Amino acid sequence: MARGDNRVAPISTGAGNILFVAPAMLLFGVFVLLPLATSLYYAFTKWSGYAEPEWVGFANFARAFQDPVHLASYLHVTLYIIGTLFLEVSFGLVMAVVLNSDRFGFSIMRGMFFSPMVLSMTAAGVLWAFVLDYRLGLLNSVLRSFGLDGWAQPWLSQSETALIAIMFVSGWRFAGFYMIIFFAALRRIPRNIYEAATLDGAGPVKQFFTITLPLLRHQMLTCILLAVTGGFAGFDLFFTMTNGGPFNATEVPATWIIRQGFDNNELGYATALTVILAVVVLIVSLVYLRVVERANVVRY
Amino acid sequence: MSFATERRTAGEWVQFALGGAIVAAMFYPTIWMVLSAFKTNREIFRHPFGLPEEWRWGNFAEAWDKGGMGGLYLNSVIVTVVAVSLTVVLATAAAFAFSRLEFPGRKWLYRLLLVGLLLPPPVVAIPLFAILRDLNMLNSLWALILPGAAWSLSLTIFIMHGYFTSVRPDMEEAAVLEGANVWQVFRDISVPMVWPSMLTLAIVNTINIWNELMFALLFIVDEDKRTLPVGLIRFFGRYSTDYAMVFAALTITTVPILLLYFLLQRHVIAGLSATSLD
Prior knowledge:
The structure holds two protein chains of two kinds.
Chain A: E1 12-13, H1 22-42, E2 45-46, E3 54-55, H2 59-64, H3 68-98, H4 106-114, H5 121-131, H6 138-145, H7 159-186, H8 191-199, H9 204-215, H10 217-232, H11 236-241, H12 253-263, H13 267-299
Antiparallel strand pairs in A: 2-3
Helix pairs in contact in A: 1-13, 3-7, 3-10, 10-13, 12-13
Chain B: H1 10-37, H2 41-46, H3 58-67, H4 69-100, E1 101-102, H5 106-112, H6 114-118, H7 125-134, H8 142-166, H9 170-177, H10 182-210, H11 214-219, H12 228-238, H13 243-263, H14 265-274
């Protein structure tokens, strides 16, 4: 990530050079930093969006920590992130190894495996809502055609399966992305390392754990960070497929914030929830980066 | 590759079969979607797997009209083209300055950009709504273009900065010695040098902004200013029992993107693997 500042000498110095970053920083300031800053004010108000915000101190935060759906949304998003680590990152890694070949057909397979990434989450969500539909969904049709009628479930409309179903759809959509990152790194591992291991009698599974995995460590750590920060931001799939339901079983922070803010007009409370989300994401990523840094120091 | 002509070993056939089976299973829903778009509702229910009895191209015309797809496409194209151009141009200039120039506050401003990389857009949705309202931009395409571009800047600048630092500034230094000013160096030397990277980043940002849902859902009210993702959700809400219509609408919105992807596959993949910043 952001590397050390071992740069070569600048070709120009002087305050005027700031003009090159000014337009970007202006845009960034108005639409990223300013809303972050103002949310620190709105979070302490009662505000419907029409009348002026009214200062209420820490009331919104007190309420947030007693709001059972809000607390449950962090449980759901944590489970979702754990699920994505397996169904996106680990699955992507395995597929990068499986699809790593110069033989005819593999390039096409990589392209097809990656293709869900270019679909919008909305399209993916709507498509999978139909795949998982109880009456005529593809999944239940397949199960019924094998005579497993009892296994057919209303996947998205019962609490026990809805979150798991969304995890699988998320895996379907994102596994290709992680596959490509790992694949690019696999290509840089010299082939003779594997040839030497084969001569020493190591099979493919042993080679995976003793050569591939240690050499992909760096990519692994980056992908985990992307999956975790991306997971906390998860909104599109949840909104499209279940919108938090059934009975709030798939409510995640982002869907709950939008519901409070724009359906219930509780903008002050919703802003407090966004501040909590921002703090949680920042703490998790900074702790993670610190731990990774320390682990690297110990290792090398 | 020299290996490609040799006969495959048993292990390679296992690898091929395993990979093929998984990829086929994962690609099947996309094929199922396209085939179902040609069927009638009865047929989708009775014969979910087979080819349609009759290829009903009319389904697409009907879904196109009912969903107002022309308008949705146009809005999506406008938002994406303007926002992506803005991001890539501004990010290239900024990355050039951060890597090649010195100015007061350089390190500090660069670190500030990390905020946009670590925080997800939902954390600003509500205050951004108020800001856009005060700027009188709510319910206009600017409400999607400017925040969309702003939230793409961090990643684009970081990747671009990586490209700049991977190339020694010899050419730029030589130009300065010959008397070129910084703007001329940027325009005549640096931009042509990083041009391929700019295109790659344009593709990455196009995928993100084209698919953006949350801002589009919150900041646009009028039906005629909607973009494709929101239009698709509204369509799904209105015709959720008319399966053939929804599949036709899904096909209309996804197949052009898929075809474009298969055409530009190499660039898309190169761009997206660059986003891991390794």
